[in-house]
């Protein structure tokens, strides 16, 4: 009885086909995994913040009555606000030491739009944003808003790791005192994707959330 076996040529051809298929599918799989990781962490981060503020509301009443709520453009008052109403309600959180941001050249974010349309960093230099680190490495930055009761919050999903690009690992949120909650910036826009794709990416979190926590096909940031 003759035994049939693959020839060396057939094995090499099969391996070549497998390699081609893998080279075509692996990048897409990696991108999809990265997108899923981002959406899961974003949902988790917003949940952490809102759970913390709900606990603070239970202790102190409506956010509109809190100390410093009308003085949040003052850096010192904003720090006192965060120290009293947020950090005690997030288990394992603590203020981040500035030295930690000097690691690998990273510093405090200087403004709401630290990336250019081509993805390059525009600068992370100012202590305007007060950073909080979590035990899992996620950072929250509480920043100065446009009015006294405004409190922008930026969430950095991977902490000290790069690339520090809005819409990729940094997302813009804001505290809404009237709702005792944190929402994604641009949450009330009919089409937050339009601002997300306009180059500053500050409404990208809202665009993802309004798409059922799925990154839209026309999302401007590549993964």
Description:
- The protein is of the alpha+beta class and 223 residues long.
- The protein has one domain (36-210).
- It contains five helices and six strands.
- The protein has helices spanning 8-60, 75-85, 98-101, 192-196, 204-210; strands at residues 94-95, 130-133, 139-142, 151-156, 170-176, 181-184.
- Strand 3 and strand 4 (151-156) form a beta hairpin.
- The radius of gyration is 22 Å and the shape is elongated.
- Mean pLDDT is 78; it is low at 99-127.
Kindly, what is the distance between the CA atoms of the first and last residues, rounded to a whole number of angstroms?
Answer: 55 Å
Number of helices: 5
Radius of gyration: 22 Å
Q: Helix/strand/pairing class, anyone? A: alpha+beta
